[in-house]
Amino acid sequence: MLQHMRRMTLHRWLGIVIKEFIQLKRDRLTFGMILGIPIIQLMIFGFAINSDPKHLPTVVLLNESSAFTRDYVSAMRNSDYFDLLGTANTESEADNLLERGDVQFVVTFPLDFERKLIRGERPEILVQADATDPVAAAGALSVLNHIGNEVFTQDMPGFRPPASGSLIDLRVHKLYNPEGITAYNIVPGLIGVILTMTMVLMTGLAMTRERERGTFENLLATPATPMEVMTGKLVPYILIGLIQVTVILILARFVFHVPMLGSLWLLYGVVLVFILANLALGITFSSIARNQLQAMQMTFFFFLPSILLSGFMFPFRGMPQWAQVIGNALPLTHFLQLVRGILLKGNGLGLMFHHIWPLLLFIVVVLGVGLKTFRRTLD
Amino acid sequence: MNLAIDVRGINKHFGDKHVVKDLSLQVREGEIYGFLGPNGSGKTTSIRMICGLLTPDSGEGTCLGYDVLNDNVEIKKYVGYMTQKFSLWDDLTIAENLDFVARMFGMQQRKKAVDQALDELGLSARRNQLAGTLSGGWKQRLSLASCLLHNPKLLLLDEPTAGVDPKARRDFWEEIHRLSSAGITILVTTHYMDEAERCHRLAYIAYGNLLANGTADEIVAAQKLETWVVSGAGVHSQVTALRVLPSVEQVTTFGTALHVSGRDGGTMGAAISQFCAAHSLKAELGNSSLEDAFIHLMRNTRDQFEE
Ligand SMILES: Nc1ncnc2c1ncn2[C@@H]1O[C@H](COP(=O)(O)OP(=O)(O)OP(=O)(O)O)[C@@H](O)[C@H]1O
Ligand SMILES: [Mg+2]
Model's pTM, two decimal places? Predict the structure, then answer.
């Protein structure tokens, strides 16, 4: 990449940027798409999408270790709804895991659990659920209640549940989105989906369009370098992406009343990184594809897993392992965590770096492939 | 004399199609070099290899002293390439196209150069018109202006006058000769014989093979053709009959007369005289034209390569 940098000159790069802006300005259809897509999609996805996810990552915090708590935990494990990652030692350790989005649930057993249970005093079990993705939490929570009665009546034959119906008092704390409003989850996610779709597609067409119209031959006959052409063509789309995000955020705030807890600056910073990741991919598709149709097909081939495996359609932690592995390679997966973290949890940069570096790595790798495959000739 | 283009033994395949075969081409500095050949013979492909837009499969050579295989970044700075198909941006205006090209070549006084080019083109008044809305002839002129913008040392013009009216074509060739006397080397492809005759030297390529090169006279002489001009009432109805006469290789219509050519002058001459006397036609020995020579070359290679 260095050897590409060295030959890069500002006037040529600027020339390409200006040309792209002028061409974009004259392309009414694309302009319509830029505003139309976010608005239409936001309206369509206003609906909730339902599912019953299993194997949600969970840690338990045991203030007491007894036969009862052990049985309860193993029953949780058998229920398929929970994936027990281990036990947390302190409350702050557990909170930290929740905040980072590493776990969906923290289940806390109090001191004196066994004693209270035997006396029929209905001990509390505290369940803290990350409800930024409300669909994910619902099914699992109802299972916890059910487990309680089953396990403890088995352990103590002859022991009947009290009239109130339950041996334990399950206290659920839904964090970050206590009312479980799906729009809170969907709308920030849509920022990512819309950016993925428009950014990859529009840049995907950028180079193949030149090739199909025959203008690529003229461009190649000038001393412009691949780095200048590729990055110069990206600049206008960065601006478009930022406009789209602003439109969505305004709608999210005033139509869907999505809370915005974190810093907007940070949000735009993260958005910028994500836009770059998608543009890098689009321009790389564009230099690999032979024609516009191929570029389009590659875009959709990428778009499908992005929608399905990123945690936008289905809760990420409920997906099978192989799907999570694929999902982790997709920029949208990390971006969803970042946007939800900033908007709904008010997270700062420190908590989110583990979702930012994968995006940066993606940009470097993909752009590298793009520059390698950029054809400097018509061969 | 220095060579602006000097390539030797260049080959190019597309898939299993051998499109350019062992091409060697020497173009001297400052000359107008005509590049001729039937459709699909590999002219455009050869030009693209010379200016670094296609990589030759084998062969070697230099363009303006730079290696065609490795130095194409340098070559591009000093070459003006006018593509066969209009390849400027339809959705940019005339002025924007020129400005873009000027930026790509890193020109110092861009505005001035663009204004001057527009002036010379006579397009100053229409500078804000989209290039895509120009007529064919104007597109050609704009293309030429855009590849002259950065003062190239070598011009590669791929059928620059296809579809251009006769007046514009004459103006165009005057411009070419002016550029040539200013020291610019020009390689130009064309299908027009009158244009071929205006070139200093020519090369003729068919099926990827370079078949002849040199001045127009040299090429005609090398074919060793004898040509009879046959005229008279009803001469055009005798084409088929003339073709089958002994030693006649080709019969071509030239206005009101026919050119009957072949290499065995003696046998052919006798047969033609006899035929013309019998059909009360006039026959006289004429000069073989460049066109006679090219048609002859083309027929021979077709027989050679198409079977
Ligand atoms: N990119 C390509 N891929 C495959 N085949 C090609 C390609 N470019 C040219 N060809 C083939 O190579 C041959 C030579 O083409 P070329 O364009 O060089 O001919 P030309 O002499 O310029 O013809 P014309 O006078 O019609 O412009 C043709 O048969 C053409 O089909
Ligand atoms: Mg051609």
Answer: 0.77
